[in-house]
Write a structure and sequence with these properties.
about 500 residues; alpha+beta; Immunoglobulin-like; nine-stranded mixed sheet; five-stranded mixed sheet; 5 helices; about 35% strand; elongated
Length: about 500
């Protein structure tokens, strides 16, 4: 189909509308009916009901038809009330006379099952009474990883066009592409191809990327009629790494040896937009895109294991960002894996960030550097031990001093008692009575100490208990009272 334009969505809708207009003309019973649209992915099922009226109850043969050119292409029918199956048993029909309803069940749907269907009652001479119409859209849903290869077999056709559906039309990728469309998706067109094997066309798309996700059609004929729809979702592999400033990291990315063992590999940093700045590459040729060499970045490709290893040394905070392991080709870079790197400031031994951006270490011999929590615990333990020792020493000193004071006080009291004349009252001492064990056998004495110096005119009293006064005393009890008078001037 060289020179033909891309099939537009509006053209396809016009063709379907024309078919729907012809359908009521061939089947008047469908006039006024709006076809339902049922969208299913491959492997799903369609369950459809077609009620009918009592007027048609006597007609037993009912059909499930695929509309082709305004006519009924029989898919499955009921013959004398018996259920019949289509091909491999995926489609069956059942007539319930009690509920006056025709049931259609299509299981394990395939992309080639897409089309406009209707259920009908056979009248005579290839005449049908349509009951209900539905447009079935069955699509393939494919999930792929980046750098995977897509291979899709379109239904048998001698001329197949592979296009990508956009908002208003379908942009052709293989066969019939126009120059106005090639520049917009040149990379995707270079990776798409159609090959025929035993008259079966196979569409291939290589080096898939996330931006390849979308809806694709196989279309045929001069009118570009859709025969299959593919919904493609491409996912990227990701890694996340964290490191401290002045540290190192090592990143490994894997690939399929058979497909990409001989390809050049690159390590680039994602910039604004879709630009990825190449830092290091295994290719001897300069990259097609932007490139900036950076010291301390090395790349090694192990083609035996299918592994690319990237090493970055002396990391800085500004090295944080998004990086790609990528295939490097003349047409550009194709991402293998996306790596997110986060570099944080190094911490000092005290647990605070180094404001100068350099890590400082204090080494004590060959022992490892303790953590900040360990340092704090040791310091607190030493301080508490010192305080405890000080408290213990202070308590012992106070106890010894108190003991010595008590000893001295007792010695002085003993000296004062021995030096004081017996039976003499001293000023400042309390009055007390001393007697022998038996008052009746010896004289009794009363020593009276006066706290203050009395005046000669002040009377003195001596109280004697009645028990101590004998009616016939044989001994005389007396009291000796002594005063220490202070000298008075001019008086005697």
């Amino acid at each position: 189909m060289p020179g033909s334009d891309a099939p537009s969505l509006g053209l396809r809708m016009a063709m379907e509308l024309r078919a729907l207009i012809l359908l009521p003309l061939c089947f008047p019973g469908l006039q006024g009916q709006s076809p339902e649209v049922q969208r299913r992915r491959e492997g799903d099922a369609l369950y459809f009901e077609c009620p009918y009226t009592a007027q048609t109850e006597g007609w037993h043969i009912k059909y499930w038809c695929l509309q082709k050119g305004g006519r009924c292409q029989e898919v499955v029918n009921t013959y004398y009330g018996h259920e019949k199956k289509f091909k491999d048993g995926r489609i069956k029909i059942e007539d319930n006379a009690t509920s006056k309803t025709l049931f259609i069940n299509m299981t394990d749907l395939k992309a080639e099952d897409s089309g406009t269907y209707f259920c009908a009652i056979y009248q005579h001479y290839n005449q049908y009474i349509p009951l209900r119409v539905v447009t079935l859209d069955v699509f393939k849903e494919l999930l792929k990883w980046e750098l995977d290869t897509l291979a899709v077999q379109c239904p048998n056709s001698n001329s197949v066009v592979w296009c990508r559906r956009e908002q208003t039309d379908c942009t052709v990728l293989v066969e019939g592409q126009t120059s106005s469309r090639r520049s917009a998706i040149q990379s995707l067109q270079d990776r798409a191809s159609i090959k025929y094997a035993q008259e079966t066309p196979t569409v291939t798309m290589e080096k898939l990327q996330t931006q390849d996700s979308g809806v694709y059609w196989c279309v045929v004929g001069s009118e570009h009629t859709q025969i299959m729809e593919v919904v493609l979702s491409v996912f990227k592999r990701t890694q996340q790494h964290t490191a401290e400033e002045s540290g190192n990291i090592s990143v490994q990315c894997h690939y399929k040896i058979a497909a990409y063992g001989a390809a050049s590999k690159a390590w680039c940093k994602k910039e604004e937009g879709n630009t990825c700045n190449v830092l290091v590459t295994t290719s001897s040729e300069p990259p097609a895109g932007p490139s900036t060499a950076r010291e301390g970045v090395r790349i090694q490709d192990d083609t035996q294991q299918g592994t690319v290893t990237i090493t970055m040394e002396q990391l800085q905070v500004q090295d944080s960002g998004v990086y790609w392991c990528a295939l490097q080709e003349r047409s550009g870079l194709f991402r293998m894996e996306e790596v997110t790197l986060s570099v944080s400031k190094a911490l000092t031994p005290g647990g605070f960030p180094d404001t100068e951006g350099k890590s400082r270490k204090i080494l004590l011999g060959d022992s490892p550097e303790p953590s900040s929590n360990g340092n704090t615990f040791i310091i607190l333990s030493v301080v508490l031990l010192i305080l405890f020792l000080l408290a213990l020493i202070t308590s012992i000193a106070l106890g010894v001093r108190h003991y010595k004071l008590l000893g001295r006080t007792g010695h002085r009291e003993a000296e004062d008692t021995s030096d004081r004349p017996e039976g003499t009252a001293q000023p400042g001492s309390a009055g007390r009575r001393e007697s022998s064990q038996d008052d009746s056998q010896g004289p009794a004495y009363i020593n009276l100490d006066v706290q203050s110096q009395p005046s000669p005119q002040d009377p003195l009293y001596c109280n004697v208990e009645p028990s101590q006064a004998h009616r016939n005393p044989q001994h005389v009890e007396y009291a000796v009272i002594a005063f220490n008078h202070s000298p008075r001037s001019g008086r005697e």
